[in-house]
Amino acid sequence: RIMFTVEMDHDEIEITVLDDRDGFEDVKVFSYDDIVYIRQFNEQYNKWDLIQMTPEMYVGLMTAYHKPSGAYLTKIKRR
């Protein structure tokens, strides 16, 4: 079981994924029109680990989770 929250503000979507076993820090995703940030607190270094990517890369990451081994090319349709 996974617990997560989704909050939407004017130009930001914030997703927080929690580890209900308390083995890992929460993972936060901040999504904007032009960039996506993923961050998690690193207790060993007492700082945030931060990953930056385009929204298209993030969609690819989420899509890849459900695919078998292989190389893929995905077209993203804009609204």
Secondary structure layout:
Blueprint: E1 3-8, E2 13-18, E3 27-31, E4 36-42, E5 47-53, H1 55-64
Antiparallel strand pairs: 1-2, 2-3, 3-4, 4-5
Q: What can you see in these coordinates?
A:
The protein has one helix and five strands; from the N terminus they run βββββα. Helix content is 13%, strand content 39%. It has a five-stranded antiparallel β-sheet with strand order 1-2-3-4-5. The model has no long low-confidence stretch (mean pLDDT 93). By secondary structure, it is mainly beta. The protein has one helix spanning 55-64; strands at residues 3-8, 13-18, 27-31, 36-42, 47-53.
Quick structural overview:
With 79 residues, this protein is mainly beta. It contains one helix and five strands, in the order βββββα. The longest helix is centred in the C-terminal third of the chain and has 10 residues, at 55-64.
